[in-house]
Amino acid sequence: MKRLFLILFFLTAGQTAAIADEAPVLFLNGQVRQGEMLFGFVSPQSELTVNGEKIIPRKDGWFVIGIGRDDKGTLVFNAKKGSRETTRTFTIKPRKWNIQRVDGLPQNTVTPSEEEQKRIADEAVLTQQARKKNIDMPFPLCFSMPAVGRISSVYGSQRIMNGVPGNAHNALDIANKEGTKITAPADGVVLLVHDDMFLSGKTVLIGHGQDVVTSYIHMSKIAVKEGQKIKKGQEIGRIGMTGRATGPHLHWTVSWKDKRIDPQVFLKNSEKFCPIAPKPAKTKKAKTKKQKR
């Protein structure tokens, strides 16, 4: 592991000429398992494919790839540079998921009418189209939590809503009082703003490059506009309970292409690229002189 990191730093220092005839370096940060967002490195200017699909890394060689909740099989990474290439194959490891029961939802949001089903389908098309928009910006490697609050539901849970089995929960729910601020976890471009979706209520989608999109759902207020460029830490809106929700919370989704991935694991893998916060300086306690009696 240490040797791989030494090679990595050697490459990023711009000294690639000395090893121009060697096979490309290929390094993964994260576990190859369901729900994971892998951060990877390949020698700059290499051609990279995963299971035959072309991946375009950043100029410095870093890239990301997502694994869906129910994905199985293998991932075959192939990197070519000049006449040399590197191929690595990984088996996707399974994960165990929780079962979560959610009661008290408006019944029409669990078993919608034919008209409501059409509205849900139309709104799903809007979000799918937004996720496919190309974002011309270098992917930011350091992400942070978009809101403060209690984690009320984790990624991957099989949901039973009002007694009816539903889809898996492919997001992270952050519960807090209505009006709590939501901020951008990294730089990006607003892909979609919708004031009233049937299931998700006030909704915002942000693109961050390399096919990574984050979604913000059930908001009480939206503070951005479609097409707007935003910076990390900038306000997106406020926590609410619009759409299908039993209490105020942020339903936060992270996706890569058409795959929803685990936001908590994504943040953990991203931490390695975030600057280390300086520790607060220790203050010395003033010594008090003992009074003579």
Describe the structure.
By secondary structure, the protein is mostly beta strands. It has helices at 2-12, 107-110, 114-131, 263-270, and strands at residues 26-29, 37-42, 47-50, 53-55, 62-66, 74-81, 84-91, 99-102, 150-153, 157-161, 164-169, 172-175, 181-183, 188-197, 201-207, 212-219, 221-222, 229-230, 235-238, 249-256, 259-261. Strands 9, 12, 14, 15, 16, 18, 20 and 21 form an eight-stranded antiparallel sheet that branches. The longest helix has 18 residues, at 114-131. The protein is globular and about 60 Å long.
CATH architecture label of the largest domain: Distorted Sandwich
Task: Classify the secondary structure makeup into a structural class.
Answer: mainly beta
Task: Determine the fraction of residues in helical runs and give it as a percent range.
Answer: 10-25%
User: How would a crystallographer describe the biggest sheet?
Assistant: 8 strands, antiparallel
Strand coverage percent: 35-45%
**Mean pLDDT score, rounded?**
86
What name goes with the CATH superfamily of the largest domain? Answer: Glucose Permease (Domain IIA)
CATH class category name of the largest domain: Mainly Beta
Shape: globular
Number of strands: 21
Quaternary = single chain
Rounded to an integer in angstroms, the radius of gyration calculated over CA atoms is 23 Å
CATH topology of the largest domain: Glucose Permease (Domain IIA)
How many distinct helices?
4
Count of folded domains? 2
